[in-house]
Write a structure and sequence with these properties.
The protein is α+β, with helices and mostly antiparallel strands. Helices cover 30% and strands 19% of the residues. The protein has a two-stranded antiparallel sheet. A two-stranded antiparallel ribbon has the order 3-4.
Length: 135
């Protein structure tokens, strides 16, 4: 499932009495995810919203989504059995949902931060002289 949760739950039931009866329940949530932003497992896409933003950049300034290092390996990934989808359309839906949830401007400031993360991923560092380096 491409949209599966990356979280797990550990449930612990407490019993008491004779015969035993449930007297309590404790649920612990934990993160199953490893870092996806900087290294995406082969054959998987990075977080959907990063693909949405890359597609929006394409529609606004013509930048190829594959030019972003954080999504390049999966930008063209499409399996034969995948349902057709449009990252740009999904982004439009997300913005509408953010507006209806009360986020001003549909969460635009959050998208700007995520866009910055995409661009930061393209920074490379090179060794320079002993007293300097290049970015």
């Amino acid at each position: 499932n491409d949209n599966s949760s990356r979280f797990g739950k550990y449930s612990q039931l407490y019993f008491a009495g004779d015969p035993y009866q449930v007297v309590g329940l404790e649920i612990d949530h934990y993160l199953l995810e490893r870092s996806r932003v900087t290294s995406v497992p082969t054959g998987e896409r990075n977080y959907h919203v990063l693909h949405y933003i890359a597609e929006e950049e394409k529609s606004l300034i013509g930048r190829d989504p594959k030019s972003f290092r954080f999504i390049e390996q999966a930008a063209a990934m499409k399996k034969a059995n995948d349902k057709p989808f449009s990252d740009l359309e999904e982004f439009r839906v997300l913005k509408e949902q953010m507006l209806s949830a009360g986020f001003a401007d549909g969460g635009q400031k959050y998208y700007e931060i995520l866009k910055g993360i995409l661009y930061l991923g393209n920074i490379t560092f090179r060794d320079g002289q002993a007293t300097m380096s290049e970015v």
